[in-house]
Amino acid sequence: MKVAIESRNPGTFEDLIAGRTGAAVQLEAELLLPADNGARAPAVIIAPGSGGVGPSHRMHAAALVQAGIAACVVDPFSGRGVSETFTDQKRISFAASAYDVLAAAGFLRRQGVVDGARLGAMGYSRGGIAVLLAASSQLVHSIPAGGGPLTAVYGAWPWSGYQFENASTAPTAVRFAVAERDNWVSPVQSQAWASAMRARNPNVSLRLFRDAHHGFGYCEALFDLPQAVKAFNAPIVYLNDQGMFLDWYSGAPLPGADDAFWERAAFAWLGRGVTVGTQPGQYEAFLEDMIGFFAAQLSP
Question: Which residues pair with 179 in a beta bridge?
Answer without folding.
Answer: 209
